[in-house]
Amino acid sequence: MISDKVRPHHLERKAILYVRQSSAHQVLHNRESGALQYAMRDRLTALGWSEIEVIDDDLGRSAAGGVQRAGFERMVAEVCLGKVGAVCAREVSRFARNSRDWQQLIEMCRVVDTVLVDQETIYAPRHGNDRLLLGLKGSLNEYELDLLRQRSLSARYEKARRGELVVAAPVGFVKAGDRYEKDPDRRVQEAIKLVFDKVEELGSARQALCWLHEYNLDLPVKQSNGDTAWRRPSYSAIHRIIENPVYGGAYAYGKTAVAAGYSAEGVSVKIRRKARSEWLTLKLNTHEGYVSWERFEAIRAMVSSNVPTGRHHGAPKHGDALLAGVIRCKRCGRKLTLRYSGMKHHIPRYSCSRAWMDNGGPHCIGFGGLRVDDAIEEALLGVVGPGAIAAAIAATNGARKRRDQVRDALSRDLEAARYAADRAFRQYDAADPANRLVTSELEARWNRALAHAAEVEGRIAMHDAAKPAPIADPASLGVLASNLKTVWDAPTTDARLKKRVVRTLIHEVVADIDDAASEIVLIVHWLGGAHSELRLPKRRRGQRNSTSADIIQAVRQLVLIASDDLIAGLLNRNGLKTGNGNRWTRERVTSIRSNYHIPVFKPAEDEIEPWLNLGNAAKLLKIAPKTLRLAAEAGEIEAVHPLSDGPWIFARTSLITASAQSIAERARQNPRYPTGSHPNQQSLFSSTT
Q: What are phi and psi for residue 300, nearest 5 degrees?
């Protein structure tokens, strides 16, 4: 029976049958629903339409409004052009599940007088009752979709709270019903354990990545089809392993949130990580993990603290400064910044310049870092010293029991490569030799597998040929541990290792400057809860590397008789160095004289020198140099001896005194004994004659 709502002008135009299913799964498996929708073509024929167009471009697309639907947009465009007399669907919910698209379709149909047809009735949008009914159905369709989604999510979340919702298994695990199980591939298991071991040993994910790259070791990754492949390690791959609680034996769900963004290109979906307190569920000990939960949390906290923020120290770097990221300003609470100066950029300096860098504010404090680091080193070694020998012996025992991780990983790679080569050979051997199109490809695969196995064998041979580092015996380690200062100051000791020791024992150092006393005040907060205060005199700039006061005094005395060239030679002969540890040259002696306002040596114009060396002084007194030296050592004549392996300096005025003349007279009277005995000196032995 033809409805009275269908007019001849409707039949003159074509009818559109809109077919849609929400997902690809429904398209493949809900075949009956698709057949019923296509069967609506017979209803349009019965109503009188001869020209019917079927639009099924949107199969597998949702009508909730978050996905572009090309078929729906084409249908609306045809309606706007007035070419369509009726639009038909099995249910009106097939058209749209959101008010925007639904109201747009109804309004366009009302303007051009197009009817809507479903399996139950015909709607004329120009009739007020039908428009009201269509509006109610659109709202109900939208609400129904929200209700179905809410019920589905509620059931999903409830299953997740029980720890039974296993959607996909990360690398190293397989899905076994409603729980995780370890991957049976032992190579995969050992590779994941190796990641945790190296991150814990080296202190950061980046150092573990560099170690893996150094030895060309691969890591397993999960492909989209669920298979495991081996790839070159990446920073993100290591972070995904050490941050996923599933590797610690825990079940976690709701770690991320989806945020939709809108731009000119359309809707974009962004995934935001949520804080652990916002996760839906976190259940411990639900399955066997690769590490214990306590160890997993310790490694995760260590890696998180490597980010240099206000609360974290940051990862240890290669610089020599011990307190980088650990020292804080007492006046403003900000962390002190670090920079290196000097000719070799090895002199650290701590300064509170964050306020100036961020807001243009004033600098709080600043001081050189060498003296501060020395004080912290002394405090640390004093704390570590009592247990150093026991720790050294324990470390030796652990090193002896530790397996060669690189050798084990390469052995597993070789075993996998040989299996792949053997499998390729079996495939090649099972093929028909006459079918060259197949056997040639299988032969090429077999050759590639053999080449890969040979490459792994070569890497193992190179590793075995490398000479391993010798392990010290406990006795020598005990001697070495008893002198930790030598070990700490050794050039081979890594600066990053020192910083890790500092951060293991010290939580934070708060620094300030006592301007009245000209001192650096350090408050050390130890991890055990104890606090200690250190006060260090604040040096002026460059004082640490300044020349020793004894050397300056020696130069002041040597310029009385020697030129700059001779002074440089005398200082080098005595093994003395400049403040920067360099040998002396004429230019450096000239520089130090200029800096300390020491006059240069100038010979007297009348050749009567006011200061004489040992030889010239002995000539003046007409005695042997040895006689004069012994008298000077005995204190009988005034003289200056600035260097142990250097000249004696005599003033001409001291050589014309009565004591000097008495020494010369005694020497002339007793030529066999250069100086003889003083007339007033008493003998400890009685005379034998």
A: -65, -40
